[in-house]
C-alpha cells in the first residue's frame, strides 16, 4: 500500500520523526501521521479486483455527507466473504462489515449492500458496507470458546467546560459546594445554585466516515514483534466549539466560534471560556507540555497538528481516530514456525490479543473527564445463539467450539524423530461431539488489581463484595484513588438523583437515553439487554461498578467447589481429583487491561454478574494541550479458551506490558537480601544503634549474607528537608550520612537509604518557603495525602521547580553520600487528585511517569531503586524493585486502634501475605517484587507458625529477603527460620488457585519444580552466582522471544546432576481455625518431558514435609488421591514430591533449605552407594534424607571426612513386584554439619551399603 503525502505533511512528519528519535523512551512509530485518508490504494492478493476508493466527508450542523466511489467485485470474491467464518479469532464492526481475522485470510472485495459507503480492504478484512441492525458497536470472539466481548459503542467521551476545571473557578465555588452539600434536599436552595454540567458524546458505527486498513509493516508497537493486521477508523466530528454546549450556554453575536484566541464569550447565562489554556495563562499557570517538551514523554501521542487542520481545502475536521490491531504472540519454540500451527503440542498457538487506542484533536474549550473505550458486555452463549444484532454474520459462533480444539490436541502424538502424528481413530463426529453437549461456562471469578503498592489485589468470587478499606475515606482515599468512573449520567434535570452533586447531560446524537448503556440481564445460555424496571431512560455507570480494577483484570471460569476441606489429617485421602479444580484446569478466561499508564490511569469495571463491562481512560478534568493532542494508552483484550494457557492466564498480557514499557528486571542487582532499620526502630534511629547492627550483620555473614543495608525513616528533622539531619542522633562531627554509608561499605554491604522525594511535612522548612509547590484540591486547600499514620503534603511534580528539587535530593544521596540502593516511598504523593497544580494539562498518570523519570535520571542507571507506595503502571521500566503489598506488621491483623477487619492498606502480616501471593506474577516481569521485611524477633506478637508462613511466601515467590529486627537481640531459633530459606533462589512459584481462591480470599497453593536436566553447570558457581543466573534466566528479557509457557521455565530451578526432577508445593491455611488443605498428586508433578520414566510410574512417590520434617511414601495406585495436610490457623507447609527410582539411590531432601536440593553441589549415586557434596560457603547444621533401593542392615556413613557418621532408618517401603523382580528400599536420616572452613571434606557425605558376610 502506497501513500502520497503533500510537501507540508512531509515536513511535519520529518519534524515528528526527529522528535521521536530524540526520545529514547518512546520508540513507537507514529500510526496516524502516515495516514492519508483521502487516497488509499488496495491491492487484492487474489487478483480478483483492484479497488481505489476515495471517501470524503463533511460535517455540517452534526450531519454527515458521504461521497463514495466503489469498484465492482466478482462473484468469486463475494463467495470468499464466508472464509472469515473459519478464522480462529475475529474482530468485527458488523454494522459496517469491518473485520479483522486471525489467522490472516486472503484479501477479498465484496460489493456494498447499501448506499452507506464502502471502504477499501486488504488481507484480514472485509469491506465496510452498512448493514441493517441495531448493534452499532464492535465484537471480538473466538471459535474455541463460547465467550465473546462486545462494545455497544466505539467511544464515549465525557467532559466539562474548561472553566470548571481551573482553580480560579473551583476556588470561588467552595461556598456554593458547601451549601449544596448541607441543603441539597432543599428545593429552594437547589434552584438558586446550579450544578456543574458534565457532557457526554457517544460514537458508534454510524459515525465512521473513513477507514484505512493496516498491513504488518504499517503497525509498529514497542516491544510487540508481529502484527496480523489492523484497521484505523475516523469518526465524524459531531460538534464545533460554538455548538458543543446546549442553548443555555449559546454565544452572543459577538462571541465568535471556534475559540481561536478568544478567552471567552458572553452567553445567555454567563461567561463561558472557549480556550481554557488562555484562562490558565492569565492566572499564572504555564503548560510544561508547551514550554518544556524535554521533560515530558510525547511518544504515545501520535496525532500531529496536520491531522486536525481545519482548512476545508485539505481535510474536514474529525472527532476521533480509533486504531484496532490484532497481534500474533510467539514463544521461543515458534520462532521458526508458522503461528497458525495451533495443533502442535510443542508449538501451541498463543491466543492473539486485540489492541486499540483512541486519538483526538485537542479542544481547549473542554476539560476531559474520561474516555470510555469499551462499553458493553461479556457474552456467554450456547450453540446457535443469535446475538440479535440484525445481521447474518457468524461472529457469535463461538458457542461451545472448545471441544473442537481440545479434540484436535488430544489426537496428537510425537514420534521419536520429533514429527507430529495425528491419530485418526476417531470419526469426525466423535471429535466434534462436544459441540452438541457443551454448555455455557459462565464467569465465576474476577482478579482485582489495586492502584498502587499497598492497595488490595486478588481474586473475588462472582457475587461477593470487592474488599475495601475499613478506614474512613479521608484516611484512605488517596491510597487507593487511581482512575475514576464517570459519575451517573442523566438525561435531564428532572431525572437527576438528589444525591448526585453533578448533572450529566448528553449532546444531540450522543445516544444518551436512546441506544445508550442499558442494564444487561442474564438469561439461560447468555446475556441480553433490558430496559430499567422503572421505565426511566437513564444511563448510570455506577450500576456497572460492582467491581473496579486498576490497570488490568482477568475474568475466569472456575469450579466453585472448595478443595481445601476434605476432613482428614492423613497425608492422603480418598477425595477424587475432579473435586479440586485449579487454575490450570479451569475453563475460558478473558484478560482486559492497558499496555501502559503513561497517558492516563486506566480502570476496568464489571457489574456483579461479571456481565456488563467498561474500560475507562481517566483524564479527571484535564485540559488538553494544543501541542500534543489527546491519546489514550493502548487497550488490551485477550480471550483465552480453556487449554490455551497452562498456569497463568495473565502471563501473555504481563509479558506484553513488560515489553512495551521496556522492563529490565535484575539489570543492576541480583535478588536483594539484607536488613532494614524500620520495623524495630521505626523513627527512633541513631548512628550508634545502626553501627551495632552493621557489626552484627558482618558477624552473621557466614550464616546469612546481606547484600544491602537500608537506613529507613528517622534521620531527618522533617520530610521534605532531606539535608537536615537530626543533630543529636546524627551529629555532623561523626560525618553524617556519608560516614554511615562508608561504614556499611566497610562491612562488605551496599548502603541504602529511604527517601520520600515528593512528600513534605506540614512543619517542614520546605512547606513554609514554597507553599506554591504543594498540590491543592479542587476547593483550593492542600490536598489530603490520606496516610493513616500522619498527614503530609504532596509536592506537585508538574512543576519544574519541584522536579529540580527532587532531582537534587536524589543526586545528593547517590553522589555525595554514596548510597547505591534507594527506597523511594510515598511516590503516589506526586500525583494527588486536585486541580491546584502548576500544569493541569497533564493527567495524573503523565505526572507520575514524569516524576519517576526524574528520579531515575537523578539516581543514574546503576542505582537500585525500590518503589514503595507507587502506582503500578507508571513504574514499569523505571524501578528495579517495587513493593507489591501493604506494610507488614507485628500482628497478623491490623493492630488496635486500626480496624482489624481492614482489607485495604493497613499494616499487618496478613495484608503482606495476601498481595505478595496475588501479585507474584508481576515479579521477574515488571521488576523484582518487594514483599516487605520478615519479622523474626520476640518483640512482635506473631507466633512461630505465622513467621514460618511469611518465610514460605517470601521463599516461594522469589522476592526480596530483608530482615528488620534488632539483630543483637535475635534468638537463634528465630534466625534459623531465615537461614532455611536463604539463599533465595531467584525463582517464582505459581499460585495454582489465584483465580479460584478459597473462602480465606488468599491463594493457598503455590508450586515450583526442580530438575537436573537443564544445561547449566551448577557445581562450579557459588549460590549467589546461581541465584543471579536463575533470576536473569527466568525474568523477562527485552527483544527476545517469550518463553514457551507450557514448559514452565519461569518456575523451574536447576539443580545438580543426579538429583533428578521433583516438585515443590506449598499449602497454607489462611483461615482463623484449623482446616485440611489438599492438592491432587497429579497437580504436583513436573511437566511430562521432565517427568519420570515408564518404569518409575509403578513405584510411587516420595513426599517430604519440609517444615515438619516428615516423610511419606505414596504408592503408584494411590496417585488419584490428594496430598492433604491438617494445618493450624495461619500455618503453611512445603512438600517435596519426587517419583521413586527403581534401582538408584535418591536425595529426598533436608531441613537445610526449603527447595530440598538447592543446598547440594554434587550428587553421584548407584544402587548401593551415594556420594554428595553440600554447599559449604555458609555454616549450617541439620538433617538430610536419602532413599536406598535395598533393605540393607549395615551402612557405612562418612560425614566431613569422619567415618563415624550418624544415621537411622525411618521408613521401609513395601516390596513391589515388577518385571519378575521384587523392588523396594528404605529411607535413612543423617545428621550433618557444615563448618564453612574452606576444607575439601567440608559438606561431603558418603553412604555405602555393607553386604552381609
Structural write-up:
With 1253 residues, this protein is an alpha+beta fold. 16% of the residues lie in helices and 26% in strands. It contains 23 helices and 61 strands. Strand 34 (708-711), helix 15 (736-746) and strand 35 form a beta-alpha-beta unit. Helix 17 runs parallel beside helix 18 (844-859) and helix 20 runs parallel beside helix 21 (944-957). The longest helix is centred in the middle third of the chain and has 17 residues, at 800-816. The chain is globular. The N terminus is likely disordered.
Walk me through the topology.
Blueprint: H1 7-21, E1 40-43, E2 50-53, E3 55-60, E4 63-68, H2 75-79, E5 89-93, E6 98-102, E7 138-142, E8 147-151, E9 155-161, H3 167-172, H4 174-182, H5 187-192, E10 196-203, E11 208-214, E12 226-236, E13 265-267, E14 270-272, H6 276-282, H7 288-291, E15 318-328, E16 354-360, E17 366-380, H8 402-410, E18 412-414, E19 420-422, H9 428-431, H10 434-437, E20 445-448, E21 458-461, H11 473-480, E22 502-506, E23 520-523, E24 526-529, E25 547-550, E26 552-556, E27 572-573, E28 589-594, E29 601-606, E30 612-623, E31 630-631, E32 635-640, H12 651-660, E33 673-676, H13 678-681, H14 687-699, E34 708-711, H15 736-746, E35 750-755, E36 759-760, H16 765-769, E37 793-794, H17 800-816, E38 821-824, H18 844-859, E39 864-867, H19 872-875, E40 881-883, H20 909-918, E41 928-930, H21 944-957, E42 961-963, H22 972-979, E43 990-991, E44 1005-1011, H23 1023-1034, E45 1052-1054, E46 1061-1068, E47 1075-1080, E48 1101-1105, E49 1110-1114, E50 1122-1127, E51 1132-1139, E52 1146-1150, E53 1160-1165, E54 1169-1174, E55 1180-1188, E56 1194-1199, E57 1207-1212, ...
Parallel strand pairs: 10-22, 33-34, 33-42, 34-35, 35-38, 38-39, 39-40, 40-41, 44-45
Antiparallel strand pairs: 1-2, 3-4, 5-6, 5-7, 7-8, 8-17, 9-10, 9-17, 11-12, 12-15, 13-14, 15-16, 16-31, 16-32, 17-30, 18-19, 20-21, 20-26, 23-24, 25-29, 26-28, 27-50, 28-32, 29-30, 36-37, 43-44, 44-46, 46-51, 47-50, 48-49, 48-51, 52-55, 53-54, 54-61, 55-60, 56-61, 57-60, 58-59
Amino acid at each position: 500500500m502506497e501513500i502520497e503525502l503533500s510537501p507540508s505533511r512531509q515536513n511535519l512528519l520529518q519534524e515528528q520523526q526527529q522528535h521521536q528519535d530524540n526520545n529514547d523512551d518512546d520508540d513507537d512509530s507514529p500510526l496516524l501521521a502516515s495516514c492519508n485518508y483521502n487516497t488509499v490504494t488496495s491491492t487484492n492478493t487474489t487478483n480478483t479486483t483492484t479497488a481505489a476508493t476515495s471517501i470524503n466527508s463533511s460535517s455540517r450542523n452534526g450531519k454527515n455527507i458521504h461521497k463514495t466511489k466503489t469498484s465492482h467485485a466478482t462473484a468469486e470474491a463475494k463467495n470468499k466473504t464466508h472464509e472469515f467464518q473459519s478464522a480462529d479469532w475475529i474482530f468485527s464492526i458488523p454494522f459496517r462489515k469491518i473485520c479483522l481475522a486471525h489467522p490472516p485470510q486472503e484479501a477479498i472485495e465484496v460489493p456494498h449492500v447499501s448506499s452507506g459507503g464502502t471502504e477499501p480492504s486488504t488481507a484480514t478484512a472485509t469491506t465496510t458496507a452498512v448493514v441493517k441492525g441495531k448493534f452499532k458497536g464492535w465484537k471480538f470472539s473466538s471459535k474455541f470458546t463460547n465467550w465473546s466481548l462486545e462494545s455497544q459503542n466505539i467511544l464515549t467521551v465525557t467532559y466539562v467546560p474548561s472553566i470548571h476545571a481551573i482553580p480560579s473557578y473551583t476556588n470561588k465555588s467552595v461556598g456554593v459546594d458547601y451549601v449544596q452539600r448541607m441543603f441539597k434536599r432543599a428545593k429552594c436552595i437547589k434552584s438558586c445554585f446550579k450544578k456543574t454540567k458534565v457532557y457526554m458524546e457517544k460514537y458508534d458505527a454510524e459515525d465512521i466516515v473513513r477507514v484505512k486498513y493496516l498491513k504488518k509493516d504499517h503497525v509498529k508497537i514497542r516491544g510487540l514483534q508481529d502484527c496480523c493486521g489492523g484497521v484505523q477508523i475516523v469518526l465524524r466530528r459531531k460538534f464545533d466549539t460554538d455548538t458543543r454546549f446546549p442553548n443555555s450556554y449559546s454565544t452572543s453575536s459577538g462571541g465568535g466560534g471556534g475559540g481561536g484566541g478568544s478567552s471567552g464569550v458572553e452567553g445567555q447565562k454567563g461567561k463561558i471560556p472557549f480556550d481554557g489554556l488562555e484562562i490558565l495563562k492569565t492566572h499564572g499557570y504555564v503548560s510544561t507540555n508547551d514550554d518544556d517538551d524535554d521533560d515530558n514523554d510525547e511518544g504515545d501521542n501520535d496525532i500531529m497538528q496536520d491531522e486536525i487542520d481545519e482548512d476545508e481545502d485539505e481535510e474536514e475536521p474529525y472527532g476521533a481516530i480509533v486504531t484496532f490491531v490484532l497481534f500474533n504472540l510467539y514463544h521461543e519454540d515458534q520462532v521458526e514456525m508458522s503461528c497458525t500451527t495451533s495443533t502442535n503440542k510443542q508449538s501451541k498457538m498463543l491466543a492473539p490479543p486485540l489492541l486499540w487506542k483512541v486519538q483526538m484533536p485537542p479542544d481547549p474549550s473542554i476539560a476531559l473527564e474520561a474516555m470510555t473505550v469499551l462499553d458493553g458486555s461479556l457474552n456467554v452463549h450456547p450453540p446457535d445463539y443469535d446475538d440479535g444484532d440484525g445481521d447474518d454474520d457468524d461472529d457469535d459462533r463461538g458457542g461451545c467450539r472448545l471441544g473442537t480444539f481440545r479434540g484436535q490436541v488430544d489426537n496428537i502424538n510425537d514420534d521419536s524423530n520429533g514429527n507430529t502424528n495425528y491419530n485418526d481413530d476417531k470419526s469426525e463426529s466423535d471429535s466434534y461431539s462436544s459441540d452438541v453437549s457443551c454448555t455455557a461456562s459462565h464467569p465465576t471469578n474476577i482478579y482485582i488489581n489495586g492502584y498502587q503498592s499497598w492497595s488490595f489485589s486478588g481474586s473475588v468470587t462472582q457475587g461477593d463484595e470487592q474488599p475495601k478499606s475499613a478506614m474512613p475515606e479521608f484516611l484512605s482515599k488517596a491510597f487507593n484513588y487511581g482512575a475514576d468512573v464517570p459519575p451517573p449520567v442523566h438525561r435531564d434535570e428532572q431525572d437527576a438523583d438528589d444525591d448526585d452533586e453533578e448533572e450529566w447531560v448528553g449532546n444531540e446524537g450522543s445516544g444518551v437515553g436512546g441506544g445508550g448503556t442499558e442494564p444487561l440481564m442474564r438469561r439461560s445460555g447468555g446475556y441480553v439487554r433490558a430496559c430499567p424496571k422503572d421505565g426511566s431512560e437513564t444511563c448510570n455507570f455506577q450500576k456497572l461498578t460492582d467491581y473496579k480494577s486498576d490497570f488490568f483484570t482477568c475474568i475466569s471460569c472456575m469450579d466453585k467447589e472448595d478443595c481445601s476441606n476434605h476432613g482428614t489429617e492423613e497425608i492422603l485421602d480418598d477425595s477424587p481429583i475432579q473435586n479440586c479444580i485449579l487454575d490450570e484446569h479451569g475453563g475460558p478466561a478473558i484478560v482486559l487491561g492497558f499496555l501502559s499508564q503513561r497517558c492516563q490511569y486506566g480502570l476496568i469495571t464489571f457489574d456483579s454478574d461479571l456481565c456488563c463491562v467498561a474500560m475507562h481512560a481517566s483524564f479527571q478534568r484535564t485540559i488538553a494541550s494544543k501541542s500534543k493532542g489527546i491519546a489514550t494508552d493502548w487497550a488490551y483484550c485477550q480471550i483465552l479458551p480453556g487449554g490455551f494457557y497452562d498456569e497463568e492466564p495473565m502471563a501473555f498480557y504481563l509479558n506484553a506490558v513488560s515489553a512495551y514499557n521496556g522492563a529490565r528486571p535484575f539489570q543492576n542487582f541480583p535478588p536483594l537480601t539484607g536488613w532494614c532499620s524500620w520495623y524495630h526502630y521505626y523513627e527512633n534511629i541513631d548512628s550508634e544503634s545502626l553501627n551495632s547492627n552493621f557489626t552484627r550483620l558482618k558477624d552473621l555473614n557466614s550464616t546469612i549474607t546481606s547484600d544491602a543495608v537500608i537506613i529507613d525513616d528517622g534521620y531527618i528533622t522533617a520530610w521534605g528537608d532531606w539535608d537536615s539531619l537530626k543533630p543529636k542522633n546524627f551529629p555532623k562531627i561523626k560525618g553524617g550520612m556519608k560516614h554511615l554509608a562508608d561504614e556499611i561499605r566497610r562491612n562488605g554491604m551496599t548502603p541504602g537509604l529511604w527517601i520520600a522525594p515528593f512528600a513534605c511535612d506540614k512543619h517542614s522548612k520546605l512547606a513554609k518557603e514554597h507553599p506554591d509547590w504543594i498540590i491543592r484540591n479542587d476547593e483550593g486547600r492542600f490536598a489530603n495525602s490520606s496516610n493513616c499514620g500522619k498527614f503530609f503534603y504532596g509536592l506537585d511534580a508538574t512543576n519544574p521547580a519541584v522536579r529540580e528539587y527532587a532531582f537534587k535530593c536524589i543526586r545528593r544521596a547517590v553522589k555525595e553520600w554514596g548510597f547505591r540502593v534507594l527506597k523511594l516511598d510515598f511516590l503516589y504523593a506526586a500525583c494527588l487528585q486536585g486541580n491546584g497544580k502548576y500544569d493541569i494539562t497533564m493527567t495524573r498518570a503523565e505526572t507520575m511517569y514524569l516524576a519517576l523519570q526524574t528520579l531515575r535520571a537523578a539516581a543514574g542507571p546503576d542505582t537500585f531503586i525500590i518503589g514503595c507506595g507507587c502506582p503500578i503502571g507508571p513504574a514499569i521500566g523505571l524501578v528495579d524493585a517495587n513493593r507489591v503489598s501493604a506494610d507488614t506488621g507485628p500482628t497478623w491483623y491490623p493492630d488496635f486502634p486500626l480496624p482489624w477487619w481492614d482489607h485495604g492498606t493497613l499494616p499487618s502480616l496478613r495484608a503482606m501475605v495476601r498481595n505478595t501471593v496475588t501479585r507474584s506474577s508481576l515479579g521477574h516481569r515488571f521488576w523484582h517484587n518487594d514483599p516487605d521485611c520478615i519479622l523474626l524477633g520476640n518483640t512482635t506478637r506473631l507466633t512461630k507458625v505465622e513467621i514460618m508462613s511469611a518465610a514460605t511466601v517470601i521463599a516461594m515467590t522469589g522476592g526480596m529477603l530483608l530482615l528488620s529486627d534488632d539483630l543483637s537481640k535475635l534468638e537463634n531459633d528465630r534466625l534459623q527460620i531465615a537461614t532455611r530459606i536463604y539463599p533465595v533462589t531467584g525463582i517464582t512459584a505459581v499460585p495454582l488457585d489465584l483465580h479460584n481462591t478459597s473462602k480465606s480470599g488468599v491463594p493457598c497453593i503455590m508450586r515450583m519444580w526442580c530438575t537436573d536436566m537443564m544445561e547449566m553447570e551448577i557445581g562450579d558457581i557459588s549460590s549467589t552466582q546461581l541465584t543471579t543466573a536463575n533470576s536473569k534466566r527466568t525474568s523477562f528479557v527485552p527483544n527476545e522471544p517469550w518463553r514457551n509457557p507450557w514448559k514452565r521455565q519461569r518456575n523451574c530451578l536447576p539443580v545438580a546432576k543426579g538429583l533428578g526432577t521433583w516438585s515443590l508445593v506449598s499449602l497454607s491455611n489462611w483461615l482463623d481455625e484449623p482446616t485440611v488443605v489438599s492438592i491432587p498428586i497429579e497437580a504436583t508433578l513436573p511437566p511430562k518431558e521432565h517427568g519420570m520414566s515408564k518404569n518409575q510410574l509403578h513405584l510411587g512417590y516420595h513426599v517430604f514435609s519440609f517444615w515438619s520434617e516428615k516423610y511419606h511414601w505414596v504408592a503408584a495406585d494411590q496417585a488419584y488421591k490428594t496430598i492433604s495436610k491438617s494445618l493450624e490457623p495461619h500455618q503453611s507447609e512445603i512438600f517435596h514430591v519426587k517419583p521413586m527410582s527403581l534401582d538408584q539411590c535418591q536425595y529426598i531432601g533436608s531441613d537445610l533449605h526449603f527447595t530440598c536440593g538447592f543446598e547440594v553441589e554434587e550428587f553421584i549415586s548407584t544402587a548401593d552407594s551415594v556420594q554428595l557434596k553440600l554447599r559449604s560457603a555458609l555454616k549450617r547444621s541439620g538433617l538430610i534424607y536419602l532413599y536406598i533401593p535395598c533393605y540393607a542392615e549395615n551402612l557405612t556413613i562418612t560425614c566431613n571426612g569422619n567415618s563415624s557418621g550418624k544415621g537411622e532408618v525411618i521408613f521401609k517401603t513395601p516390596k513391589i513386584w515388577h518385571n519378575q523382580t521384587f523392588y523396594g528400599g528404605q529411607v535413612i536420616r543423617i545428621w550433618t554439619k557444615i563448618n564453612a572452613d574452606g576444607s575439601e571434606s567440608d559438606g561431603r557425605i558418603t553412604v555405602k551399603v555393607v553386604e552381609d558376610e
